[in-house]
Amino acid sequence: MQMKQQVKERFNHFLSRKHLKTTLQRNLVVDAMVELGRHTHVDELYLLLRAKHPYIGHATVYRSLRLLAESGLAREINLGDGFTRYELARQGERHDYLVCSDCGTVTEFENGAVEKEQLRRAHNLGFAIETLKIELKGLCRHCQGRHPNAN
Amino acid sequence: MQMKQQVKERFNHFLSRKHLKTTLQRNLVVDAMVELGRHTHVDELYLLLRAKHPYIGHATVYRSLRLLAESGLAREINLGDGFTRYELARQGERHDYLVCSDCGTVTEFENGAVEKEQLRRAHNLGFAIETLKIELKGLCRHCQGRHPNAN
DNA sequence: ATCGATGCAAATGTTTTGCATCGAT
DNA sequence: ATCGATGCAAAACATTTGCATCGAT
Description:
2 copies of one chain form a homodimer. Chain A is an alpha+beta fold. Chain A has helices spanning 2-17, 24-36, 42-52, 58-70, 112-124, 141-146, and strands at 40-41, 74-78, 84-88, 96-100, 106-109, 128-139.
């Protein structure tokens, strides 16, 4: 996959521009993010890396992801559930989440038309929009089955 | 001010509907929120209350604010800076927010058509939606002026 | 050789919880 | 009288930081 190389290259370019060092660990973090191809908790990524590289540290993953976000290649996602997620900033600007209030699973979905309309309205109110997040909370298909009559 | 009474009344109604108790502390929290009239950190509110009522506890403020949010009279704001803010939900049933990433001000706006469309799509994915939140982050008109060339 | 990066553990800061007591119903 | 609510301190939690060592430049 050449996308991995491309992202890694851009990250390394960012690093040297800032007089920071290209390290094995930083590359491992970028690789893992590209391979995952979806948003993830910091800790999830840490465990994933840990499995293959026992000596990588928790702090390093945190530090690398923050750098990756600073470089603009990833972004921080905050769903208000206590921990930070990161996601590669791909082509598009999708931020639509379905969060299951029972099992916590996050499903992404897309609705470009809706987003455009929201952006237009925000603009009319004088806002310079940076990010757009649409968050729906409810029970996913699986958890609906398990709790037929919750509440 | 009669708005304070109105909010307090609605909150108490919510409490009794849930078979929860109306207490001095819960009323103090609501009062403080109405008086402040703006979003605030939990801890800021705690210190404010503490000044007049030395025996109110940290945990109680957290617990009361969460209840207030559950009742729909307030909402949680998460700017990703490590602590939670709360704000009274003025018009009640709005779910679209413009959050200024600089000053934290929250502006509500409405877009019923968009919401309906989102709910429909979520339903198609098998989700039983409980809450819907559309959050746009960016610079409000005021903060745009103050930082002409940020970054 | 320099000086930033790492891993670990300890520290931090916010939010939650256990528990004995208090107080609204 | 019951049983939820409170205050406190301790716990839990994700995240950050200090420091000795490692490694990219």
